[in-house]
Backbone:
């Protein structure tokens, strides 16, 4: 166990430094190539800004994961877990590319969602699926195949877009992902699922390295490429970390891991539908917009939402450990 924790810490530190080194080069190149953010009525920046910072997060993840693999960090995992890691890598790459293409070419919402559903379906077919769940007092509920398919793809695309929608203020999305993945890393340690902890640690490190340039006032944005990558990996890790040895998923813990972006997404969708607007119609109904509109500053708004995320994480872990119910 001690060796595994050293590997996790090493991967965490390596990913921080790779992102710290890569991001300025990406920013410089994109500024010279005029690959910058499209300002609109909801933008919080007064001047155009580079929006491809997710490339640094993604490259850092790939390099550090390759390092972890090269030092045989995954030698004790079974064949099913190898398939899971492979599926996660393929799925996260597809989602990153969808977002990066959108950053460069501005895809329509329908095109993005169609490709996301296709990629989620591919991941489901490769074995990353929600099949048996515990939810509060419901135990070992077997989900029919067609429902497993629908729930899985809606969970993946839903959480992915929830993170994308929350990426409206400097440092907000990356910070929330760090908070959420700290939970998945701790659960991985508790259940001796060290491959979950390693992957979570790598992404946390990449996000922290990126935050050095993304905190207000941001020098670079992660863009859709970064938010889609982080949203996809968070959707997968929130499920895998709460999966018991018999493949049953403790779904209520998965929900708590992503509670803030999930609640924000549900609120926004229902409000837009109530106002007879498309769920994809951009407006200022997101949590961060509503806090800003109450007169809070950019920094304070981000701090409030991050504090809510930390509070949820503390409460979740307090209940989890004190009642010994990570093995629910």
Residues:
């Amino acid at each position: 166990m001690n060796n595994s924790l050293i590997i996790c810490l090493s991967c965490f530190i390596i990913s921080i430094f790779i992102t710290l080194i890569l991001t300025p080069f990406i920013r410089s190149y994109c500024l010279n190539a005029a690959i910058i953010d499209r300002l609109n009525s909801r933008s919080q920046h007064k001047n155009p800004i580079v929006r491809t910072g997710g490339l640094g997060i993604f490259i850092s993840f790939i390099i550090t994961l390759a390092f972890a693999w090269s030092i045989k960090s995954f030698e004790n995992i079974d064949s099913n877990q190898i398939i899971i890691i492979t599926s996660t890598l393929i799925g996260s790459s597809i989602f990153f590319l969808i977002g990066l293409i959108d950053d460069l070419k501005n895809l329509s919402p329908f095109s993005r969602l169609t490709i996301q559903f296709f990629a989620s379906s591919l991941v489901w077919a490769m074995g990353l699926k929600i099949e048996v769940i515990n939810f509060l007092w419901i135990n070992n509920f077997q989900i029919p195949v067609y429902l497993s398919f629908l729930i899985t793809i809606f969970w993946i695309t839903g959480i992915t877009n929830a993170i994308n929608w929350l990426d409206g203020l400097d440092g907000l999305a990356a910070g929330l992902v760090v908070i959420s993945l700290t939970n998945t890393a701790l659960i991985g340690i508790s259940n001796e699922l060290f491959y979950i902890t390693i992957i979570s640690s790598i992404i946390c490190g990449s996000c922290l390295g990126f935050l050095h340039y993304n905190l207000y006032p941001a020098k670079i944005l992660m863009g859709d490429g970064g938010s889609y990558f982080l949203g996809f990996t968070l959707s997968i890790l929130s499920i895998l970390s709460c999966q018991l040895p018999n493949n049953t998923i403790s779904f209520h813990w998965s929900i708590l891991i992503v509670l803030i972006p999930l609640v924000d997404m549900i609120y926004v969708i229902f409000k837009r539908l109530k106002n007879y607007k498309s769920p994809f119609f951009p407006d200022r109904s997101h949590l961060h917009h509503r806090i800003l509109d109450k007169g809070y500053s950019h920094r304070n708004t981000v701090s409030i939402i991050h504090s809510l995320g930390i509070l949820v994480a503390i409460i979740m872990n307090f209940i989890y450990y004190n009642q010994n119910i990570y093995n629910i």
